[in-house]
Specification:
The complex is a heterodimer of chains A (120) and B (110). Chain A is mostly beta strands. Chain A contains no helices and eleven strands. In chain A, strand 4 (34-39) and strand 5 form a beta hairpin. The radius of gyration of chain A is 14 Å and the shape is globular. By secondary structure, chain B is mainly beta. Helix content of chain B is 4%, strand content 45%. Chain B is built from one helix and nine strands; from the N terminus they run E-E-H-E-E-E-E-E-E-E. Chain B has one helix spanning 29-32, and strands at residues 9-12, 18-23, 35-39, 46-49, 63-68, 71-76, 85-93, 98-101, 105-109. In chain B, strands 1, 3, 4, 7, 8 and 9 form a six-stranded mixed β-sheet that branches. The chains are: A mainly beta (120), B mainly beta (110). Chains A and B meet through strand 5, strand 9 and strand 10 of A and strand 3, strand 7 and strand 8 of B.
Chain lengths: 120, 110
């Protein structure tokens, strides 16, 4: 069965950096695009970034463009999110999600999430 | 980035029918349709419908979706206590080159 396990969250000061990881199993990782989506405490879902299956195409939300970098290691089945210049408003649970493509692009399976808290 | 519009809450009785709406524009919902996600309290989201009216395996037939123009809808028939959750719609926006979500609709089963 599909499993996505995020790690790397924690408490970081404003302006700091953090790298999140998402270990994938139960499906052919190299076939699917992957997303990062975040959810601030008590708030709705916000899409953060997407990477195509081959890693050659990436998209970012305006709110993180230039600060966050999505990447993947297809030899290890791991998705990453490098987060720099962190701000208080980046505080959220960060989820990785597998893409489902079927005449459109959708969010298929999700991990349990990892909490990032940006605070001094 | 502009998101999709959902009503904040819907309340219906046990075994009744709830219809949730998601309004976008011709660049997102009106283009490739919407996906629907269910998020129960304390859990990650789960896909319940995609490409307007397809259900992933394991999702109850009580969930059905449709689209009319720039508005997508999710209908839950025979409401059960376990259907209490937040429901989010999502779509790819071709003009923004980004995915967008609705603000979510909280479904309460009375």
């Amino acid at each position: 069965q599909v499993q996505l396990v995020e790690s790397g969250g924690g408490v970081v000061q404003p302006g700091g950096s953090l790298r999140l990881s998402c270990a994938a199993s139960g499906f052919t990782f190299t076939t699917y695009g992957m997303h990062w989506v975040r959810q601030a405490p008590g708030k709705g879902l916000e899409w953060v970034a997407f990477i195509r299956n081959d890693g050659d195409k990436k998209f970012y939300a305006d709110s993180v463009k230039g600060r966050f970098t999505i990447s993947r290691d297809n030899s290890k089945n791991i998705l990453y999110l490098q987060m720099n210049s962190l701000r208080a408003e980046d505080t959220a649970v960060y989820y990785c999600a597998k893409e489902r493509v079927d005449s459109g692009s959708y969010f298929d399976y999700w991990g349990q999430g990892t909490l990032v808290t940006v605070s001094s | 980035q502009a998101g999709l519009t959902q009503p904040p809450s819907v309340s219906k009785g046990l075994r009744q029918t709830a219809t949730l709406t998601c309004t976008g524009n011709s660049n997102n919902v009106g283009n490739q349709g919407a996906g629907w996600l269910q998020q129960r309290q304390g859990h990650p989201p789960k896909l319940v419908s995609y490409r307007n009216n397809n259900r992933p395996s394991g999702i109850s037939e009580r969930f059905s979706a449709s689209r009319s123009g720039n508005t997508a809808s999710l209908t839950i028939t025979g409401l059960q206590p376990e259907d209490e959750a937040d429901y989010y719609c999502s779509a790819w926006d071709s003009s923004l080159s980004a995915w967008v979500f609705g603000g979510g609709t909280k479904v309460t089963v009375l």
